[in-house]
Structures are given as structure tokens and as C-alpha cells.
Specification:
3 domains; 9-stranded antiparallel sheet
């Protein structure tokens, strides 16, 4: 193999394709980045990474003097290409080594056994397309509520529900729940499907596949453990195995009515929560008291540092006080695509629902349900 490629484009593609590679691979070949030039890769080069759960591919136009395939340490190549000077990169194989040259810099890397590298899964047939910006925003807004405990894998995922032209994303870690609905263009107008996708994988892919206005989404619902989701945008694509398990019936958690509501500037509330939370210990909640006069925030007290702050707000209902984990509350406020936040309550010990401004259909397309913290009497 012998190719020449523009430095920035190659470094960016290598970084993207190698991001999924494990820090410490159980099998050495899984730490490798596969480089294919010419042949099945077409007139350019294709970079591929795979860890048996997630695959990533990036294609780019290069000058191919001699085609071929090679497997090199992916993360090391990413570090090298990122540090090279702004000159064209020449990459060539030399026996069992790969030589990377750029300006006066020259690196020699060992190759990994290509014949031991697993075959990447095929991209499923495209199920539809969705706007890249809208999808990235929706996934980011929901992913904050996904669990981080791998002992409960079902809660580390984002549930994707498709019903015709409507796509609903939901995630929960049992302490909060985020739900976002958006429009998309399915290949089959009557399509209905559900999938549970690892939240971290989906969030990274949605954030990085933004080179075009539209993102292709593909679903393959095989047998148990065989489900696959594929995302493609521009010259990049990724696949991920779906999680297996029963996602909580989250719709029953969302109250249909409320006994009190408060509307407040979301930026002002965010800043106030951050300030007041400075005196709260890592596990301590902050108390929010709602009345016709507005909102009063409190944290700390007794022998510890204490803080209070008041904010104007429009409040309807009987006055109440409720306490939240400040980090979870800030996550919810940050997930709103709105300069106004509405908190809906059914009681001081029951979950509150945080929403932004209504969409064109007359209802919010994003809901963030937050469990209150019980205060010692």
C-alpha cells in the first residue's frame, strides 16, 4: 500500500474511526484500525474500527499509488496524525511495518495480523432520514438521564420508538426521566419499531455525524441479541448492537395533570441553582419554595455554610416546597431548547415535570421528569 493524503482530513478521519477502539483490548487485533486503499474501498481509502459491539467507518479521497489493506494500532495512529505538521501525509507499507511520513517527521508502526481481524457487520437497509441538528439535539437532551451503571444495562440505553413520521427518544436512571419527540422521514410511512441503543454510543455518533443536513438511520431487528442500528452521514457510518432487555414502562410515570405550575426564565434559574448549590455537599439537595411571590432557593444551613436566592416566576396553584438533587436539576434545565422553563407539580413528594416552550402542535416535545429528594423533618 502507498497513499498520499491531506493531513487535516486524514487526522480527523483517523480520530473518528478509532474513537471506539478499547483502551485495553482483550484481543490485540481489536485495538487495530483497518486501512483499505483502492479495491472495495473505491478510488479512495476507508478506515474501519470494530470492537464486536460498535463499528465505525470513514472514507476519504486520497491519492492511491498502490492499493492494499493493513491493520495498525489505531489510537497510536490517531495521536501521531494529530501531532503532525500541516503537510501532506505519505503512508506506505514496508514488510510488516507501516511508514508514516509528513514533512521532516517519520514514524514506523508495527502491523497487526489482518487475517485475524473480525468482519465488520453490514449496514442494515436504511429505515429513514432525520435532520442531523435536530437528532443530535434530541439525543443529547435525552442522554443526560441515562444510567451509568453497567450492572443495569437496560438503563444505560436510549429507547427509540418509531411510529410513522414520529420518533420518540426516552432514557431513565430511575431518578429522572427524559423524553423527546421529533419528526423524521421513514422509508415506510406506516413504520413502527422500537430499539434500545447504548446511550453513550448514540450520543457520540449523533454529535459527530453532522457533515450533512440529513442523517440516515437503519434498523435491523433480528433475534435476541442480534438487533443492530446503523447511522450514516456524509462519508462516515457507524453501527451498534442493540441492548437486550425490557425498558421501564415510562409513559405511566408522566402525570397527565398537575396541581401547580411555575414558569421562569431558564437561564436565570440555572444560574441561581449553580450559585446556591455551591454550599451544598455532593449528596445534599437544594430546596425550592414556590409561591405567588416567585421562587426561593435554599441550600446548607445549621452549622454549615448556607445560601438563599429569590427569583421572579409566574406561579399557579397552592404554595409548596420541594427539594432536588442540584446536578439532576441542572441537567434538566440544560436539556431544554428554550429560554423559558415550566415546572409542573402534583405534590412536594411526587415527581415534577420540567418542560420548555410549546412546539407548533401545542405541546412540548421534551419532558424531563425529576424525582424529589425527601427532606428530614
Amino acid at each position: 500500500m502507498r497513499i498520499r493524503v491531506e493531513r487535516d482530513a486524514f487526522a480527523d478521519a483517523v480520530a473518528w474511526a478509532s474513537r471506539i477502539l478499547p483502551q485495553k483490548a482483550a484481543l490485540p487485533v481489536l485495538s487495530g484500525l483497518r486501512i483499505d486503499a483502492g479495491g472495495d474501498a473505491g478510488p479512495g481509502v476507508r478506515l474501519s474500527g470494530f470492537d464486536y459491539e460498535v463499528s465505525a467507518q470513514a472514507s476519504l479521497d486520497v491519492t492511491v499509488a498502490e492499493g492494499g489493506s493493513v491493520l495498525v494500532p489505531g489510537r497510536l495512529l490517531a495521536e501521531i496524525t494529530r501531532s503532525l505538521p500541516p503537510s501532506p501525509i505519505d503512508l506506505a507499507t514496508d514488510g510488516t511495518r507501516v511508514v508514516v511520513s509528513c514533512g521532516s517527521s517519520r514514524f514506523t508502526l508495527p502491523t497487526l495480523p489482518l487475517e485475524e481481524y473480525p468482519t465488520l457487520p453490514d449496514m442494515p437497509a436504511v429505515s429513514g432520514t432525520v435532520g442531523t441538528d435536530a437528532f443530535a439535539a434530541a439525543v443529547a437532551a435525552v442522554a443526560v438521564a441515562a444510567g451509568r451503571d453497567d450492572a443495569l444495562p437496560v438503563l444505560t440505553g436510549i429507547r427509540v420508538e418509531i411510529d410513522g413520521e414520529q420518533m420518540t427518544l426516552a432514557a431513565t436512571d430511575r431518578y429522572r426521566l427524559a423524553v423527546r419527540t421529533l419528526r423524521w422521514q421513514p422509508e415506510e410511512p406506516s413504520m413502527q419499531a422500537t430499539a434500545l441503543v447504548p446511550a453513550r454510543t448514540l450520543a457520540e455518533a449523533a454529535k459527530s455525524l453532522t457533515s450533512g443536513a440529513q442523517l440516515s438511520l437503519a434498523l435491523s431487528m433480528g433475534g435476541t441479541g442480534e438487533g443492530l442500528i446503523g447511522l450514516a452521514g456524509g462519508d462516515r457510518s457507524t453501527t451498534s448492537r442493540l441492548l437486550d432487555g425490557e425498558f421501564p414502562k415510562y409513559r405511566s410515570l408522566l402525570p397527565e395533570t398537575s396541581t401547580a405550575t411555575a414558569s421562569v426564565d431558564s437561564g436565570a434559574l440555572t444560574d441561581a441553582v449553580r450559585r446556591v448549590a455551591l454550599v451544598a455537599s455532593r449528596t445534599s439537595p437544594i430546596r425550592l419554595s414556590f409561591s405567588a411571590e416567585g421562587i426561593e432557593l435554599e441550600a446548607g444551613g445549621l452549622d454549615d455554610a448556607a445560601a438563599t436566592e429569590s427569583l421572579p416566576a409566574e406561579f399557579e396553584g397552592e404554595a409548596l416546597s420541594i427539594a432536588f438533587n442540584p446536578t439532576y436539576l441542572l441537567d434538566g434545565l440544560g436539556s431544554l431548547d428554550s429560554d423559558a422553563a415550566t415546572l409542573s407539580f402534583t405534590g412536594p413528594t411526587k415527581p415534577a415535570v420540567l418542560t420548555g416552550k410549546s412546539n407548533g402542535d401545542g405541546g412540548s416535545d421534551h419532558k424531563y421528569l425529576l424525582m424529589p429528594v425527601r427532606l428530614a423533618s
